[in-house]
Amino acid sequence: MTQNPYLWLIPTLPLAGAAINGFLGRRSSKTAVTTIALAFPGLAFVLALWIAFGFSSSAAPYVFDLAHWIRSGDFSVDFAFYLDQLSLVMLLVVTGVGFLIHVYSVGYMSEDPSFYRFFTYLNLFMFFMLTLILANNYLLMFIGWEGVGLASYLLIGFWFQKDSAASAGKKAFIVNRIGDFGFLIGLFLIIQHFGSLNFTEVFSKVEPLQAETSGAGLLTAIGILLMVGACGKSAQIPLYVWLPDAMEGPTPVSALIHAATMVTAGVYMVARSHVIFERAPIALTVVAIIGTLTALFAATIGITQTDIKKVLAYSTVSQLGYMFMACGVGAFSAGIFHLMTHAFFKGLLFLGAGSVIHAVGGEQDMRKMGGLKTYIPTTFATMLIATAAIAGIPPLAGFWSKDEILWKAFESNPVYWVIGAITAFITSFYMFRLLFMTFWGDYKGIQVDDHGHAHATHGEHGHGEPHESPMVMLVPLMVLGLLSLVGGLVGIHNGFEHFLEPVFGGEFPKAITEGHSNTEWLLMGISVLFSLAGLFVAYILYVSKPYLPQKIAASLGAFYEAVLNKYYVDEIYAKLFVKPLVDGSTAILWQGVDRKVIDDTVNNAADGAKHVSDEVRHMQSGNLRSYAGWIAAGAAVVIAYMVYLGVAR
Amino acid sequence: MLSVHLILFLAFGVVAVAGAVNLLVQRHPINSALSLIAVMAALAGEYLLLGAEFVAAVQVIVYAGAIMVLFVFVIMLLNAGVEEQTKGSRVALLFGIPGMLIGSLLVGWVVLRHSGTEAVAAGAMPGPPKAIGDQLFHEFLLPFEITSILILIAIMGAVVLASKPPVPGGGPAKKVND
Amino acid sequence: MVPLSYYLVLSGILFACGVTGFLIKRNIITIFMSIELMLNGVNLSFVAFAAHWHVLAGQIFVFFVMVVAAAEAAVGLAIIIAVYRTRETLNVDQVNLLKL
Does C31 touch chain A (CB under 8 A)? Predict the structure, then answer.
């Protein structure tokens, strides 16, 4: 391991930015806030680039010990950072895409009164995310984990005066917490059996262990518990319900946190713990099944949604399912590859959606959009690239990564491939649906003088026609568009996989097949076919014959209603978990424990003291003779005691 | 067995106890005061029997002669009448009397058990009053001086406490100078 | 020859009478006199012990007890006079302003 003394600067630069903006931002000018907000993450990105250029694959991973933290007997945890190929990929993605989104936000949030607060939170998020990625032990990673959850809560509820935003923030945090519970128990098990939380130490202790092929064991338990944590953070079944609600936050937040970076923390964590998972096949299967099911489930919901951001939210859940599917079949580098390309095109999609929303003055309902390709051509172009990327049309980025996953899934179990392919078709369909509804046809929006539609507290300008966004918002779109175009090319000849081999290699190397077998070409062709089919169906339904969707929906009746209402999952959760919990808390914890036990104990103690003193005060009678009586009685007691002492001798 | 010493002791003792009981029984304080004087006189006799002439003399002069006279003066001054029979405190009777009884019985029991039959000879006290004076001004000089200050303070306190409250308008009425 | 214990018993009887008087009497002055009775009882036991052990210190202590009793009587009676002036009564049961 080589020392790299600059590692710690990368997380702390955004932290400094957050602190400066947080304390001084309220009274600073917008320019000052912007400069600080952009300078520090920008510096962090430059530093990451510099480290990347100097990174040598043959060199051992970089570490940097910042400070001692916990020393408890044999157990020790430090503030230390660790950079290997995996963290380097994540680092570049987070700092790069993060910086671009910061730039975009300058334009998007320019009219918001809490401008400085937004960037404080955003920088704070960057700090925690970078800590998560660069941590060299599970505990520091958990700090980053919790911290990004906190930043997510703050940013989702950024417009906290709105009830729905505040509730959404709460929901996100609470559901995350449920996942964290599983994560923590997994960590406890690791401490108990391996005596450390340091990655290198734990993994070196796990490596000699036998794979648990014959049944569930310790590693399976740890794996499943870690996966529970990942389900919470990365919005998989059954803990995905917070992500669609999280769209209450400003669009840059959705782009950065709920598409490109935070939700991928779960994938990163599973990939980082691959040593454990590889030796627990049952846990891996669980991961794969959850990922696959989530991918399909969320995609079906995405078909029916009318809010542009909600479609993208369900799409994110679905794509995350793909990443977990990849990890679940052991193709960790494929999962990370998809993570990277997803950051590009999903980030672009969200930013583009934000640009669209900005253009139509705050409207988010796609049924009120349409025909925008003439009004906002640049946004349209970039969103077209992104949609094609996510649909998996070659040679854009999404094609390479998704195909990699599908191929590895097929190698493991064809069922995964079937579901994945169907999901790819559905993905392509709903994404092109989004594109056609938004940009084709006639503009159905309300033009002059209409403000205050449903969601946006985002600058309604009261102008007539939809207008293009300013350059500060368009440049990040273009950069991301470029990345979505060419970003996948690193996957050619398994280049990406080779790069990550030192991390994911080891005892269970998936033989990196050079060249492609015939089956692989066949499958590749089928998946491209599915993507084009989705495009085609969407075109028919939303451009050529726009009356069809209504008829299809009507004929499907109740099933359509169920999908439209997200399979009523939120309502089921509310009935099954939330209501009993709230009722139980009110009845037992509040009325019972807080009122009856705690309050009453205090009150009764006071009352008791009062009653006792009420009785005792009768001694103070003011009557001389009673005092004399007490004195005589007391003297008798003392004499008796002394006689007893004397006689007992 | 029945020496003169013992007879005299018993005589004085009976007088003392009778006086004490009479103090309790009488309802008018003046009668109680006179009984107390009788008790003190009897005790002076006891002291003489023990050979403590100085103490006996002081007892009669100071105690019976000054303190009790003071009591009698105050009774006359305040025109104390027959004692009223008010219900006072139950505690005094409920706890006090039994407490007192228990205490004194215990002490009595200890005394009778442990002090054998060694007798105190009549006039057993060592030395004449001159010896008392010697000790008083040598070993016990400090307590002596302190008690003299104590008396001084007591005098001042008594004068202040018992004086008539000041007339409103300040001072005794002044005669107008003609 | 009178045994020491006889003196002590006599002293104890006098003391007990004093305590009883303190407890059952209602006139302040009579209570005060009971206190004097208690002091006298104690004086007797001091002198008896002094004679028993042939020590002079007992007598001297009696001397001091008497001095203190005199001072106390003076001040106490002054207080009684003051109380009588304000409360117009010598009944100790009626001097109970300190009642809670």
Answer: yes
Chains in contact with chain B (at least 3 beta-carbon pairs closer than 8 A): A, C
Q: Could you tell me which chains touch chain C, where touching means 3 or more CB pairs under 8 A?
A: A, B
Supply angle C-alpha C48, C49, C53, rounded to 5: 120
Pairing between strand A2-3 and A75-83?
unpaired
* Single-letter amino acid, residue A350: F
Taking phi first (over 0 means left), then psi (-120 to 50 degrees means alpha), and beta for anything else, what does residue C95 get?
Answer: beta
Q: Which of B91, B106, B109 to mutate to test the interface with A (most CBs of A within 10 A)?
A: B91
A463 or B18: which leads in pLDDT: B18
Whether residue C39 is contained in a domain is answered as yes
Across the beta sheet with A75-83, the strand order is A2-3, A62-72, A75-83
Within 10 angstroms of residue A131's Cβ, the number of other Cβ atoms is 25
Tell me the C-alpha to C-alpha distance, in Å, between residue A597 and each of A213, A605, B3, B61.
51, 12, 80, 73
Q: A545-549, B56-60, C45-49, C53-57: lowest mean pLDDT where? A: A545-549
Q: Among all residues of chain C, which has the CA nearest to that of A630? A: C23
How many structural domains compose chain C? Answer: 1
Q: A62 pairs with which residues across the strands?
A: A2, A83
Q: Say what the pLDDT of residue A248 is.
A: 87
Instruction: Give me the interface pTM, i.e. the ipTM.
Output: 0.90
**CA-based nearest distance A608→chain B, Å:** 25
CATH code of residue C75: 1.10.287.3510
pLDDT in tens, A145-165: 999 999 999 999 999 898 889
pLDDT of residue A459: 47
Rounded to the nearest angstrom, the minimum Cα separation between C88 and chain A is 17
Q: Can you give the residue range of the structural domain that contains C37? A: 4-91
Residue type, A376: I
Nearest to residue A362, comparing CAs of A159, A101, A121, A122? A159
Mutant choice from B7, B28, B50, B132 vs C, greatest count of C C-beta within 10 A: B50
Out of B92, B102, B109, closest to residue A629 by CB? B92
Please say if the pLDDT value at position C15 is more than 50: yes
Q: Torsion angle of alpha carbons A492, A495, A496, A501, nearest 10°?
A: 150
Instruction: Please work out, in degrees rounded to the nearest 5, the angle formed at the alpha carbon of residue C59 by the alpha carbons of C53 and C65.
Output: 130
pLDDT at res. A449 = 42
**Domain assignment of residue C98, yes or no:** no
Q: Which of A184, A158, A182 is nearest to A172 (CA)?
A: A158
Share of chain A above pLDDT 90, in %: 23
Subunits close to A (at least 3 CB pairs below 8 A): B, C
- Closest chain C residue to B114, measured at CA: C5
Residues of B with CB below 8 A from C90's CB? 78, 80
C23, C92, C96 ranked by CB distance to A632: nearest: C23
Chain A residues touching B100 at Cβ < 8 A: 632, 636
The minimum CA-CA distance between A605 and chain B, rounded to whole Å, is 30
pLDDT of residue A510: 52
Assigned token pair, A456:
């946006």
Q: What are the tens digits of pLDDT across the range A220-279?
A: 889 999 999 999 888 888 888 888 888 888 999 989 887 778 888 999 999 999 888 888
Please indicate whether, in this complex, the C-beta atoms of A620 and C98 are within 8 angstroms of each other: yes
Q: In Å, how far are B131, B165, C28 from C95, measured between CA atoms?
A: 47, 20, 10
Interface contact flag, B89 A646, Cβ < 8 Å: no
C96 within some domain? no
**What is the pLDDT at residue C62?**
93
Cα end-to-end span (Å), chain B: 83
Enumerate the residues of chain B whose CB falls inside 8 A of the CB of residue C62. Answer: 52, 55
Are A633 and B92 a contacting pair at CB < 8 A? no
The answer to the question of residue C99 being in a domain is no
